[in-house]
Design goal:
Elements (H helix, E strand, L loop, with lengths): L1 E6 L7 H10 L7 E4 L20 H11 L3 E6 L8 H9 L11 E6 L4 H13 L9 E4 L15 H18 L1
Parallel strand pairs: 1-2, 1-3, 3-4, 4-5
Bound molecules: flavin mononucleotide.
Length: 173
């Protein structure tokens, strides 16, 4: 069982990346959990290049997803929307059907995050990914819920992450 975890933030010390690192501590031994490191390498989406030989980073992403049983997306909101590089990545996945029927846990951890969270549900719905209300989490005021080292210090947030992640794992194993 393989899970690919993708952070929508490229920022060093990102809260979203820290959430994905926290989830890695909950992963059972039977599950291989990888945090995707190459989001910054995905080129701007060009439908003219979206063919059998796409750019190498896109090919690699599609292959990694084909080998993954489930995906976690954890992202902030920028300017009331989905971070551009994450949306750009998802645009490359429309034609490849990489997320069709794939279980996706969606976490939006941001100052507010409501618009990105809703928008991503629409986009992932268009890609026919498998989303579930119990594993969709919106975490507002995220920065105040972490300490300087990126540890989650808010007990409620930790509990909701634990619960949603366990539900997700139980659904795919
Ligand atoms: C350019 C920019 C725009 C932002 N716009 C929003 C926004 O519209 N809504 C929101 O909830 N947070 C917004 N934020 C705040 C981010 O949610 C916050 O910085 C968050 O911690 C980023 O996630 P990260 O810690 O994983 O990098 C914005 C941040 C930046 C840098």
């Amino acid at each position: 069982m393989k899970i690919l975890a993708i952070s929508g933030s490229l920022r060093e010390g990102s809260s979203n990346h820290n959430i994905l690192k926290y989830l890695s501590t909950l992963v059972p031994d039977t599950v291989d959990y990888q945090i995707y490191k190459y989001l910054a390498n995905i080129p701007a989406f060009d439908p003219g290049l979206d063919n059998d030989t796409p750019p190498p980073s896109v090919r690699q992403l599609r292959e990694t997803l084909a080998q993954s049983d489930a995906v976690i997306i954890c992202t902030p909101e920028y300017a009331f929307g989905v971070p551009g590089q994450l949306k750009n990545m998802l645009d490359w996945l429309v034609s490849s059907s990489s997320l069709v029927d794939k279980p996706v846990m969606l976490i939006t951890a941001s100052s507010q995050g409501k618009y990105a969270h809703e928008s991503l549900q629409l986009t992932l719905g268009a890609l026919t990914a498998k989303l579930a209300d119990e594993t969709n989490l919106l975490i507002p005021f995220i920065r105040s819920k972490m300490d300087g080292e990126g540890n989650i210090v808010d007990e409620e947030v930790r509990k909701s992450l634990d619960k949603a992640f366990n539900t997700f794992i139980n659904g795919i194993t």
